[in-house]
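Why should sequence recovery work at all? Because a backbone constrains its sequence more than one might expect. Tight turns favour small or flexible residues, buried strands favour hydrophobic ones, and helices have their own preferences. The token representation captures these environments compactly. In the example below, the structure is given first.
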């Protein structure tokens, strides 16, 4: 009686086929990352789904490292080179936000700006007032400011700290307002799209224009046009003798949206980006939405204004963190 030993070692003929399948699978992993990097680099914001997905680019950038390491560990050198190119494209787009790039100090007047989305007016009034007392903002921009929320703030003493106000409290998500320590007047700039109010205030004594930013949220296909219109309606950065401009609030967009980079290219700087905190998420707060956090709330200041610091603050009752920036106006702005 004879016995046969069955070897578990793959036959030489089967090895090339197995290697080919591994190579194919690695390339299949690379394709989505490559497509994402190309869309991000070309600035295509036309598709509704892409508008939503683009906000999560930093997470995709981090995940692309896995595909690269897999290709290199399995010695798929061509795929590895492709992975390096893809990772390089993501790094160029995302990493600068993690490193500070401060502007030279103009040696002028300090200006503190606080912005908060009140989530249909449901944000905790006490926390907002605590931030006002502790941070001592010169400007407070509020989004989703309802009549009830405005009344609660009035009763809590908002006008003692910030006596001047321009805005239009409105039921639901459409209201907006700007509070300040110095006199304001309303600017009639046409910034209202899809019933959203983006309050515009001018401080004549400081040659300053402030916008409480809140375009439509692109949650549905039919909101995409409203979202783009609201962002494109924002004033370009000022130059020369034009008013110094500050845009603060819930942009419903990140720096991975081309429309935001176009706005920055007119001469604005994102306070979070300048201070190396551009990847800190502001939405959603813990437990509000089952998605990773992204930076939707910003303070943009035109390039004539220096950025000193930036921070985010939790506020119960809202899905957005408040954002705070310490700025410095040129000396002539007082």
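From this structural description, the recovered sequence reads:
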């Amino acid at each position: 009686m004879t016995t046969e030993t069955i070897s578990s070692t793959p036959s030489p003929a089967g090895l090339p086929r197995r290697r080919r399948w591994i190579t194919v699978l690695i390339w299949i992993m690379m394709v989505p990352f490559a497509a994402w990097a190309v869309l991000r680099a070309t600035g295509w914001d036309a598709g509704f789904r892409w508008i939503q997905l683009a906000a999560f680019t930093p997470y995709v950038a981090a995940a692309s490292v896995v595909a690269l390491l897999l290709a290199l560990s399995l010695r798929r050198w061509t795929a590895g080179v492709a992975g390096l190119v893809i990772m390089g494209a993501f790094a160029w787009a995302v990493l600068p936000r993690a490193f500070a790039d401060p502007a030279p100090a103009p040696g002028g007047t300090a200006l503190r700006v606080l912005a908060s989305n009140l989530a249909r007016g449901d944000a905790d009034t006490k926390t907002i007032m605590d931030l006002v007392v502790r941070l001592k903002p010169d400007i407070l921009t509020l989004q989703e400011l309802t009549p009830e929320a405005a009344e609660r703030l009035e009763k809590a003493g908002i006008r003692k700290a910030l006596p001047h106000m321009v805005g239009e409290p409105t039921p639901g998500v459409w209201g907006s307002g700007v509070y300040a320590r110095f006199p304001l007047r309303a600017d009639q700039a046409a910034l209202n799209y899809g019933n959203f109010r983006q309050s515009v205030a001018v401080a004549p004594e400081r040659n300053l224009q402030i916008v409480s930013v809140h375009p439509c949220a692109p949650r549905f296909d039919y909101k995409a046009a409203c979202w783009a219109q609201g962002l494109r309606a924002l004033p370009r950065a000022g130059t020369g003798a034009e008013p110094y401009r500050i845009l603060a609030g819930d942009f419903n967009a990140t720096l991975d949206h081309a429309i935001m980079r176009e706005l920055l290219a007119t001469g604005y700087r994102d306070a979070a980006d300048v201070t190396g905190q551009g990847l800190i998420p502001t939405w959603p707060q813990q437990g509000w939405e089952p998605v990773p956090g992204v930076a939707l709330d910003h303070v943009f200041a035109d390039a004539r204004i220096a950025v000193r610091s930036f921070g985010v603050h939790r506020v119960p009752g809202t899905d957005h963190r408040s954002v705070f920036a310490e700025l410095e106006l040129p000396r002539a702005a007082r």
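A few observations help interpret the result. The two ends are 104 Å apart (CA to CA).
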